[in-house]
Amino acid sequence: MSYLAKLTFKTVTRIVERDPVHERRIKFMGAAEEQRLVVAALLRGETYTKAGKAKGDEPVKVKTVRPWFFQKDTCWYLQPRYGARVLLIDGKSNAIFAAKTADIDAALVALIEAAKAGELDAVLELASRRGNQPSV
User: What is the phi/psi pair of residue 27, to 5°?
Assistant: First the structure.
């Protein structure tokens, strides 16, 4: 008797229910958490790096994470991103002002909490669309 003869076969379609809103929130919050590590490294006078993907027998590549923030004059500005797109959090402004470096971390924490609460869902949905985006 065949081993396969003992099995019962059926044809089914598997439906994976994924909530795109939840996935966008998770992606944004993960990136914001990584930016908190970049800020912490900056405060220590270091550059934050992370391990990249290795191909085959090649050694693991080290990637420098590009910060969402920059200094202009004596102030700091944070430009939250979703992927490569700068978010217009309030619908018109492309940056959050921070008087000092430590304020950047507080702004990132506020953004993470806002994403958890669903306050950024519309902004993230707009940024996730392909095609023409508002220029920043």
Answer: -60, -45
Question: Which pTM was predicted?
Answer: 0.78
Spatial contact of 20 and 127, defined as CB atoms under 8 Å apart: no
Q: Alpha carbon 97 to chain centroid distance?
A: 20
Tens digits of residue pLDDT in 71-129: 998 999 999 999 999 999 998 999 999 999 999 999 999 999 999 999 999 999 999 98
